[in-house]
Amino acid sequence: MTTVITYGTFDLFHIGHLRLLQRLRGLGDRLVVGVSTDEFNAIKGKKTVVPYAHRADIVAAIREVDAVFPEQRWEQKRDDIVRERADIFAMGDDWVGRFDDLSDLCKVVYLPRTRDVSTTEIRQMVNALHLDRVAELQRAVQHLQDLVARL
């Protein structure tokens, strides 16, 4: 049995996350996933929209995922690989080279990310929509103020 281990925040779960998990599972018979806790994300300078417990539940519900555990610090990966008896450590290719030091414990693989989708892009789109809505509301308020002033 080949075990694959990976990590991620998985905030605003999207098709890119799903496809990555599917491709990761395709590398082996068992996929275990470390989901970054809110506290660890704060250390990394990330602020999540969805709380850890919900993100972990979402990832655990994916049929390709066999187990989920909390990622609480950078240094835990070696212990996790040994505990899970991982044969392959795999991440998206935005991390190329970052975890090569783990190759003494298992094979390290970097897979291409799904094109044209990312949590950052989704967050930027939501922010842009929010700003558009705020501007629209400001115009409406100004229009109402103008009407009231004319009365």
From TrEMBL:
<keyword id="KW-0548">Nucleotidyltransferase</keyword>
<dbReference type="GO" id="GO:0016779">
    <property type="term" value="F:nucleotidyltransferase activity"/>
</dbReference>
<protein>
    <submittedName>
        <fullName>Glycerol-3-phosphate cytidylyltransferase</fullName>
    </submittedName>
</protein>
<keyword id="KW-0808">Transferase</keyword>
<feature type="domain" description="Cytidyltransferase-like">
    <location>
        <begin position="5"/>
        <end position="124"/>
    </location>
</feature>
<dbReference type="InterPro" id="IPR050385">
    <property type="entry name" value="Archaeal_FAD_synthase"/>
</dbReference>
<dbReference type="InterPro" id="IPR014729">
    <property type="entry name" value="Rossmann-like_a/b/a_fold"/>
</dbReference>
<dbReference type="InterPro" id="IPR004821">
    <property type="entry name" value="Cyt_trans-like"/>
</dbReference>
<dbReference type="Pfam" id="PF01467">
    <property type="entry name" value="CTP_transf_like"/>
</dbReference>
